[in-house]
Amino acid sequence: MTALRHFFKHVFSLLPEGLQGRLEYRLRPSLSSGFGPLNDQAVRTNIFERLVTELNIGQIVETGTFRATTTAYFAQTGLPVYSIEVSPKFYEYSKLRLKSARNVFLYHGDSASRLLEICSQLADKERPTFVYLDSHWREYLPLRDEIEILSKHLPNSIAMIDDFEVPGDPGYGFDDYGGSKRLSVSYLAGSKTQRPFFVYFPAAPSSKETGRKRGTCVVVFNPELKQHLNAFDLLRFYGSYRAF
């Protein structure tokens, strides 16, 4: 049985990635029921829901759809959701999973180029945009490019970054791809933005978090949004970073 299973896995791996995604959705729907949205993290979920309400968020952008678990949760707000997935496999999987979500607009491609495209569509929106950055898992780490694009083309946005190091709290997990590819403040500070940006971290320690306990930070570019976040009890201000 093990040899037969390995044979079918090998055959499956030879299929085009998009077809793999469509078959995976049809044959293994339980794959989408692993960790829940936002890594099953209660503190992060509370931060998101309060930000949407208190800052009167008008639309949501996500980079890194994966299997659309968090995307489907975002869609429940009733707001327009724009999500980007670079993998043909997960893009096709998510297309099937989200086919009944009329307020979700799914994009295939790398996050930087697609984010720029989406920003051009949202530039005239009066209400702030919530942006969830979670596309950092391949060789190319797009986070700095994403921050630079938001700073220039969508400054009225609030960006939440997944898998980010929380200074002073090792209980929060984060991604470290070696060398300069460590999702940390020092990496983020190297972003060549056209305006200063302001960084916040969860006020709650990791011991109060649930689920996967992945670290996060929140970034804003607009001084007015900074004033709102300064009074937001779920986040703590960490620092301002100058434009290049």
Distance between the termini: 59 Å
Number of helices: 9
- Strand arrangement within the widest β-sheet reads 3-2-1-4-5-7-6-8
The amount of beta strand, in percent, is: 15-25%
CATH superfamily, by name, is Vaccinia Virus protein VP39
| Helix percent band | 25-40%
What is the general shape? globular
The CATH class: Alpha Beta
* CATH topology annotation: Rossmann fold
Secondary-structure-derived class = alpha/beta
Explain what you see.
This protein has 244 residues and is an alpha/beta fold. It has one domain (2-241): Vaccinia Virus protein VP39 (Rossmann fold, 3-Layer(aba) Sandwich), CATH 3.40.50. It has 9 helices and 8 strands. Strands 3-2-1-4-5-7-6-8 form an 8-stranded mixed β-sheet, sandwiched between helices. Helix 4 (69-75) links the parallel strand 1 and strand 2. Helix 2 (17-27) runs parallel beside helix 5 (88-97). It is globular. The protein starts with a helix and ends with a strand. The relative contact order is 0.15.
SSE blueprint:
Layout: H1 2-13, H2 17-27, H3 42-54, E1 59-63, H4 69-75, E2 81-85, H5 88-97, E3 104-108, H6 111-122, E4 129-133, H7 143-153, E5 157-162, H8 185-188, E6 197-202, E7 216-220, H9 223-230, E8 235-241
Parallel strand pairs: 1-2, 1-4, 2-3, 4-5
Antiparallel strand pairs: 5-7, 6-7, 6-8
Helix pairs in contact: 2-5, 6-7
